[in-house]
Design brief:
The structure is a homodimer of 110-residue chains.
Chain A: H1 6-20, E1 25-26, H2 27-37, H3 46-59, E2 62-69, E3 72-79, H4 81-107
Antiparallel strand pairs in A: 1-3, 2-3
Chain A binds a DNA duplex (30 and 30 nucleotides) through residues 5-6, 8-10, 12, 26-29, 44-48, 50-52, 54, 70-75.
Chain lengths: 110, 110
DNA sequence: TGTATATACATTATATATCAAGGTATAACG
DNA sequence: CGTTATACCTTGATATATAATGTATATACA
């Protein structure tokens, strides 16, 4: 197994899928949830998020529906079976990558 | 503390610095060492490596010198004090990032 | 009433990292 | 004597994240 070139670039999609696997949510809510769960490590830009959401939907990993509450229109996203599969694969790849990274860094005397 | 935008893009430099912190080495040797230490997780492309080496040298994080052995010309790289500082910072950032990543992924039921 | 902030969607231009592919040259192996 | 490994490097394509910008409504506050 080799680290795909998409891994580093793809952590955004993995984070989004991971949040949505816990329940349907809308864009703005995803950003807030990510910030909160990572203890502010991740402050995902909206210019990063929306292209990810649209791409995942195009791929069939997400489905969306509109809902209005408090006079606000929210576009909720739901993870499909395909999306869950992708999430499992991405998590595995992340674990593999981070293990490799830690192994290499572990050799360094610094 | 926030994850810098350079983190994901910068793992390449971190890996290279990490290898060189263990002793001076040349480009081709770095690729081989990385593959070996990561158990083939990382197969760094030469088109990725050389720009990293040149940029780190330009920054003052590396110094280079030529050596010939077995009729082969090898350009060895040595980590400077500044390079060690950068390595420490990058490692810290990596640990912070991977912790955040694991925290977010840990919430996912999948 | 007016204004700033938070919410909520989205696009566009820019920077940059990585890769694939190509180029040059020597040594070693069969 | 041709293939593989070693060893340096550059260029062009691709992709991703960000910054900046745009639209619109609700809420808090002065």
């Amino acid at each position: 197994m080799k680290i795909s070139k998409e891994l580093l670039k793809g952590t955004g999609a993995t984070l989004v899928l991971s949040v949505l696997a816990g329940g349907d949510l809308y864009g703005y809510g995803i950003v807030k949830t990510l910030a909160q769960r990572s203890e502010d490590a991740f402050a995902m830009n909206e210019g990063t998020l929306y292209p990810i959401l649209h791409a995942l939907e195009e791929e069939g990993c997400l489905e969306s529906y509109w809902e209005t509450a408090d006079g606000r229109n929210r576009k909720y996203y739901h993870v499909t079976r395909k999306g869950l599969k992708k999430l499992r694969e991405n998590k595995e790849e992340w674990e593999y990558f981070s293990a490799g990274m830690n192994r290499v860094l572990g050799y360094s005397p610094v």
